[in-house]
Amino acid sequence: MEYEYFINLVPIKSGGGLQNAINFIIGFNEIEKNKNKYIFLVSHDYLEHLCKIYNLNYKRISNRLFFETLYFLNKKNKKIFTLFGGKPLFSYGNKNIVGFAYSNLLYPEIDFWGYLPRSKRIIKKLKDIYRFLMIINANEIIFETDLLFEKAKKNRWFKNKRLYVVKMAANALVKEVRSKKNPYCEKLANSNEKFKILYLASSHPNKRQLKLVEIAKELKKMNNKKILFITTMQKNKYYKDFINKIKKECVEEYFFNFGIIPNKDVPYIISCSDALINIAVLESFSNNFVEAWQMKKPLFVTNADWAVHNCKDAAIYLDVENIMETTKKLMNSINNTVFLEKIVANGEKRLKTFSNYKEKVFNYLNIIKGNL
């Protein structure tokens, strides 16, 4: 069968990108009438599963090198939409539309890979150069936020490109939890008296979970055992450093790690928390924001332009380079119920300024079809 549109989800592996891909497939299935014109290219098991249950045309891509170099060689005059990432390497003669997912490429002042040894840092920077080339060689580029859009407009490499903004949307998977049985809450049953702060993120230096250990150390000095940090970190070198630091500072009672959780379980783990936190060095946008607002939870975030631009007055801002001040701000906030209720109310208002997942997919499809 001849397809007109190729939806490239091959680069997507986990995290926020995976959630956005899931939302795209769900929204596409609900609103697109001419599905036979499209084929989804996937490498993730769950995305393949969704394509199967919705009876969508798809192809499983197992060899990334083959995909980047050979898959599109005999295809011309097609439209290729890459949700997150650069265009496929050899896809000439086709129209490429890409979603910009690498915010560090527009923040040269931030040494994003500075935590790595020199040899690994060079490799990461070479990969970034390749990613940047694959992005600027696309025909059209879509950004998640106005802030990144404005930064790109001022960058000479984007001057002759068609640029769009399709803002983040409420997560289709995050809905009110009605079931009384919640395995996450059951595991936290012994911590019901504590204020539970959830950091829904993978193990990575950019996420700065090690800063939570420093905060816990300050709380211990104050003899304050009121806070429990809940994490969803997978086992890797950074997680090992995280655990070792917790043990070194003897602050085990301040942490509970669930490990990686399925995307469908996101509302369940959020419902067991009292607040969400994101203290990353840099993000373009974070699903944590809309998830907190959807689930009516207070939100603590990094005090940085990307976070302030996205959250406005719907978050509490933390400078985690100043651990003592951050700890005091956390304590003052959780002890002020009226203040937290105001943040939650602001979050509900802020959420209304974003589209829902179907509207977001509608905007994507309009760009893909050339309607904008």
From TrEMBL:
Keywords: Transferase. Pfam families: Glycos_transf_1. GO terms for molecular function: glycosyltransferase activity. Transmembrane segments: none annotated. Residues 187-350 form the Glycosyl transferase family domain. This is Glycosyltransferase involved in cell wall bisynthesis. It comes from Marinitoga hydrogenitolerans (strain DSM 16785 / JCM 12826 / AT1271).
